[in-house]
Design brief:
Blueprint: E1 3-7, H1 13-24, E2 48-54, E3 57-65, E4 83-88, H2 97-111, E5 116-121, H3 127-133, E6 137-141, E7 146-151
Length: 157
């Protein structure tokens, strides 16, 4: 079944919250306190999301938002660098949906004039390979999570 991507909006806050659970608790760990920052008050300036639909039902999402130094996310590297989150429902993983979502989100970031994107990932998370394929490199290796950054070069025609 083909997957359709559409731009995420304010109406997707609840779904993004569900996807955040999949992104940050891929091994069903106990939630931490910073996670609500990725979706709380969704729709503020700079918030950008892409939703994957299959047969009209959402099956994945990728989004980014800017954080302030006094309220950073897990993969915070600076106020001008959005941090991304991405997740695909477990039954749809391994079918290229994450790849399509990440490609679309990187394009939106370029179009938005951002020079780079950051993220946080646990070293054992299989999604790390996806991030590396899209140019993300480790800039900080914490004991439980790594911060990765991708430089986003504008496309030239």
């Amino acid at each position: 079944m083909p997957v359709v991507l559409r731009r995420g909006g304010a109406q997707d806050g609840r779904f993004l919250r569900d996807m955040l659970h999949h992104a940050y608790y891929w091994r069903e760990r106990v939630p931490g306190s910073l996670t609500s920052r990725y979706v709380r008050g969704w729709g503020r300036a700079g918030d950008t999301a892409v939703i994957a639909l299959e047969s009209g039902f959402p099956v994945g999402a990728a989004w980014f938002r800017l954080f302030r130094a006094e309220e950073p996310g897990y993969g915070y590297v600076g106020e001008g660098t959005p941090e991304l989150a991405i997740a695909v429902v477990p039954s749809k993983r391994g079918h290229g949906i994450g790849d399509e979502l990440l490609k679309a989100l990187l394009e939106k970031a370029r179009d938005g004039g951002f020079a780079r994107l950051s993220l946080s990932v646990e070293p054992g998370n299989p999604a790390r390979k996806l991030y590396e394929r899209h140019g993300f490199e480790v800039v900080d290796q914490g004991a439980e999570a790594w911060t990765m950054v991708a430089s986003i070069a504008p496309t030239t025609d």
